[in-house]
Amino acid sequence: MSRPDFLPDEVLSVDLSAWSDLLPDRSRLVGGSLFADLFLADGDGAIHMLEVSAGSIRKIAGSEAEFLQKCAADDEGWLLKPLAERCRAAGMTPTPDQCYAFTTLPLFGGKYEVDNIWLSPWAEWIRYTATMYVQTKHLPDGSKVRIIVEPPN
Fold first, then answer.
1. What is the pLDDT along the chain (153 residues), one digit of tens a residue?
2. For the chain, how big is the Rg over CA atoms in Å?
3. How far is CA 78 from the centre of its chain?
4. pTM over 0.90
5. What does the domain layout of the chain look like in residue ranges?
């Protein structure tokens, strides 16, 4: 079974080193959704979904074949197809090197709504979400976070 077009090749070159403590052993990237959620096969072939905007990972399928079959219907909602369709209807159509990104990350309570979404290059978005993950992974749930944006030197 070939990889569907909603798992773009552009995601295969992103740096996942900041996420290493979450990734399964001997994992390999098999693709990503338009919202930059990443799908990885572990050493046994099971598929895990790394939700970069939420800073979490979970096993979603026992094999790549099962994963691809479930993605075709997207009954589990992993691909956020209805939200992607609303984004396209609002004029946001990503190029192959772009994904949908959240103005306020779901990790921080951001909503899965069109007015909270913009287009970002894959590598930049995954690098940004990794930075947020690394800085917040040891905080207890419910912690208050203050983000300070500093201009580059």
1. 344 445 566 777 778 889 999 999 899 888 888 999 999 999 999 999 999 998 899 999 999 999 988 888 888 888 898 999 999 999 999 998 899 999 999 988 899 999 999 999 988 999 999 999 998 888 888 888 777 777 776
2. 15
3. 10
4. no
5. 9-136
